[in-house]
Amino acid sequence: MKKIALATAVAAVALAASVYASPYYALHQMKNAIAERNVDALASHVDFPALRISIKSQLETTLADSIQAATASDNPFAAMGQAMVTTMLGKMVDAMVSPEGVAAMVSKSAVGAEADKSTPDTGAQQKKDYSVAYAGWDKFIVRAKADGDEKGGLVLLRHGLWNWKLSAIELTPAVAGHE
User: Fold this and answer.
1) Could you say which of 12, 65, 135, 152 would form a disulfide bridge with 172 (CB–CB 3.0 to 4.6 Å)?
2) Number of Cβ atoms within 10 Å of the Cβ of 16
3) In which element (H, E) is residue 16 found?
4) Which residues touch 93 (CB under 8 Å, ≥6 apart)?
5) Has residue 87 got a pLDDT over 80?
6) pLDDT tens digits, 19-71
7) CB atoms within 10 A of CB 14
8) Closest CA to 159 of 71, 46, 10
């Protein structure tokens, strides 16, 4: 009876550990796909519809803020500019959030293979500093640190018990226009 209880406890701990470690494994697979330039393997770890919605909503918020600032300055072309840019924004995000576009964005992040390359001016091995953390049961965030400050991030959401997909990218303040 003790052997069964011990085996059950060991199995429960192993299950809990594998569930906890699953986003780290997903990040490892993403990094390998980028290093191997395997766009299809990386695409299998991306929820493209959710990612498009995330990026588009952030860019629309930034656009609305800048249009509001232009309107406050009595610019008569602000409404026309907003209509034109909003129309182009959807097409731009669709082009950006493709398997190749995501590969380029992620390779520039802390997770990407370029994070481990040496810099040409110093010749020293420079690895980007980043933090990873759960933000709930089904949300895992990878943030690059710049000058001790965390900016932007990759948001992975749980799909099932062990699977994780890149579902959002938190744009840096410079990209989002909030510097």
Assistant:
1) 152
2) 10
3) helix 2-35
4) 52, 55, 56, 59
5) no
6) 999 999 999 999 899 889 899 999 999 999 999 999 988 888 887 777 666 66
7) 10
8) 46
